[in-house]
Automatic annotation (TrEMBL):
Gene source species: Candidatus Kaiserbacteria bacterium CG10_big_fil_rev_8_21_14_0_10_59_10
Membrane topology: Multi-pass membrane protein
Known cofactor(s): Zn(2+)
ATP-binding as UniProt keyword: no
InterPro entries per UniProt: PDZ (IPR001478), PDZ_sf (IPR036034), Pept_M50_Zn (IPR004387), Peptidase_M50 (IPR008915)
A GO term from the CC aspect: membrane
Coiled coil: none
Gene3D superfamilies per record: 2.30.42.10
SUPFAM superfamilies linked: PDZ domain-like
Protein name as it appears in the record: PDZ domain-containing protein
Length: 368
């Protein structure tokens, strides 16, 4: 239950941050904001009305919206900034209003990464720089290796390694473990590890030809790194968070590009990698086991996802509305109201179908 509330809290926070961007810039350009909604209609609850804006909670928890007066062409046209109508605002003002949401999410990602680094997130360190809270982590497991056969996976923490016959134990550094294993070809090794807060024991037999580049050396087929929670001072965290934010954009962008190419190529299996709010429960649950820093980092990645997804040229999303605004600017006239409403309805329908599909996949994964 705590994890579910955490997921809801992260999503609601990021949605509010996004919509606050639209809201603030619309107010700056004196465009009337009729409704500030968390979730998509139908409406569940009217929280109140302040400054002429209705604040609502809605039943479909897949996003949020700011409803601007006149954005669908309704209302009396009175060109000028004082009319309060979105379509009467200058084109550059309309574009800034549309971009403000994703800009706020990008800033949120930067500050969330900053907070994560200040709290301390797991980072790979050199053994000679490791402190008291350093941990030996499995970074990879080779297929068909003794470690894979014993059930080890990337992310497991090695907390003990013992020769069953002699009782000798290995020092917990990558080099020490490698040397310890290579001296015990064919002998049983007791490996104690921790996963998800629970410890377990596996028994492995080092074998030859596990690592192709060193086939003559007995190995169990794991890559190991030293990881440590290292809190950073604010200035350094802010600087490094900028780099992490840029990297997150590159990573998410590549992922969405691969999904897009897969869909165009007829490979429907690429959608299996997409998760929705239900799937986030498991991911956030895993992150919560590694502390607040990991939760903040995950929230930052989700915020980056929201930026890129919202910039896709899909009607009803910011990217689609920016494309329509660009077309209108090129044609020097607004699209007919019926066209704008139809495109918006199609976009909303597409989003709902996509989210229902993703949620179905999430539930199917849980059941399987």
């Amino acid at each position: 239950m705590t994890t579910i509330l955490l997921v809801v809290g992260i999503l609601v926070f990021l949605i509010i941050v996004h919509e606050l961007g639209h809201f603030a810039v619309a107010k700056f350009f004196k465009v009337k904001v009729e409704e500030f909604g968390v979730g998509y209609p139908p409406r569940a609850l009217l929280l109140g009305t302040w400054g002429g804006t209705k604040y609502t909670l809605n039943w479909l928890p897949f996003g949020g919206f700011v409803r601007l007066y006149g954005e669908q062409g309704e209302g009396e046209t009175r060109p000028g900034r004082t009319s309060g109508k979105f379509t009467d605002a200058p084109r550059f003002a309309q574009a800034l209003i549309l971009v403000a949401g994703v800009a706020m999410n990008a800033l949120a990602a930067w500050f969330l990464f900053t907070g994560a680094l200040m709290m301390g997130v797991p980072q790979v360190v050199e053994p000679h720089l490791a402190g008291e809270n350093a941990r030996l982590i499995v970074s990879q497991v080779l297929p068909s290796s003794p470690a894979a056969g014993a059930g080890l996976i990337a992310g497991d923490e090695i907390i003990g390694l013992r020769d069953v016959e002699s009782g000798a134990e290995a020092a917990l550094t990558p080099d020490s473990v490698t040397a310890f294993v290579s001296e015990r070809g064919g002998r049983q090794i007791e490996l104690t590890y921790e996963r998800g807060g629970r410890s377990a024991v596996a028994y492995v037999y080092p074998a030859h030809s596990v690592v192709q580049s060193a086939a003559e050396r007995p190995a169990i087929g794991v890559g190991l790194v030293i990881m440590e929670h290292t809190p950073l001072p604010f200035a350094q965290a802010l600087r490094e968070a900028g780099g992490r934010t840029i990297y997150a954009f590159e990573l998410v962008g590549r992922g969405l590009s691969e999904i897009g190419r897969g869909i165009v190529g007829g490979n429907r299996n690429v959608l299996d990698e997409v998760v929705g709010p239900v799937g986030l429960v498991g991911i956030v649950g895993d992150a919560s086991k590694h502390g607040i820093g990991s939760i903040l980092s995950l929230a930052a990645f989700i915020s980056v996802n929201l930026v890129i997804i919202n910039l896709l040229p899909i009607p009803a999303l910011d990217g689609g509305r920016l494309v329509l605004l660009g077309v209108e600017s090129a044609m020097r006239r607004s699209a007919p109201r019926t066209v704008a409403q139809l495109l918006n309805a199609l976009g909303v329908a597409f989003i709902i179908v996509l989210m229902v599909t993703v949620t179905y996949q999430d539930i199917a994964r849980l059941l399987s």
